[in-house]
Write a structure and sequence with these properties.
The protein is of the alpha+beta class and 161 residues long. The protein has two domains: 77 residues, no CATH class; 77 residues, Alpha-Beta Plaits. The chain has five helices and four strands. Strands 2-3-1-4 form a four-stranded antiparallel β-sheet. β2 and β3 form a beta hairpin. α1 packs parallel to α2 and α2 crosses α5. It is rod-shaped and about 80 Å long.
Length: 161
């Protein structure tokens, strides 16, 4: 239970995946230790282990195709880097341009909105999950779910260390 809770929150509030966890040592003092003590302490110990292990924060990347009239090719192509997108290929068919690329999932909606605005609604942007890449720069944190008992233990644990 404590492992599941710790992995659901991770270091930055995101779910931890693709890891194997094995506890090698635990101290149990019969008169005062309870199973609840271990459940409460496990997420905090996991957090410290994740810090020491040097975990990586991954973000979802999408592959996208933009269909737009040819007269908007320059703007659509040149605006892509503003949204952290990489253009892989462009094709011309009749009076339409097809731009193929990759973009972080966090940026796709802004790029779509921009395309719709400057093409007057004449563009279509299709996207699907391509995979995950390590984030660059400052990690994006997600607010942790509150658990007052664990937060009290975390506070006391951080005061000691």
């Amino acid at each position: 239970e404590g492992i599941r809770y710790g992995c659901e929150q991770g270091l930055y509030g995101w779910n931890v995946t693709d890891c194997k966890i094995c506890f090698k040592y635990g101290l149990y003092y019969s008169p005062v230790s309870t199973p609840a003590d271990f459940r409460m302490l496990t997420p905090i110990v996991l957090e410290q282990a994740f810090r020491k292990a040097g975990t990586e924060l991954l973000e979802p990347y999408l592959s996208f195709k933009v269909y737009a009239p040819q007269e908007y090719l320059s703007r659509a192509y040149n605006d892509a880097p503003k949204y952290c997108a990489n253009i892989v290929n462009t094709q011309l068919k009749n009076n339409e341009v097809i731009i193929i690329g990759e973009i972080p999932a966090r940026c796709i909606q802004d790029y779509r909105n921009d395309l719709t605005f400057f093409t007057n609604g004449l563009s279509v942007c299709l996207a699907e999950l391509k995979g995950y890449q390590v984030t660059t720069g400052e990690p994006v944190c997600q607010t942790r779910r509150l658990n007052s008992r664990i937060d009290k233990v975390r506070y006391m644990f951080n005061k000691i260390t």
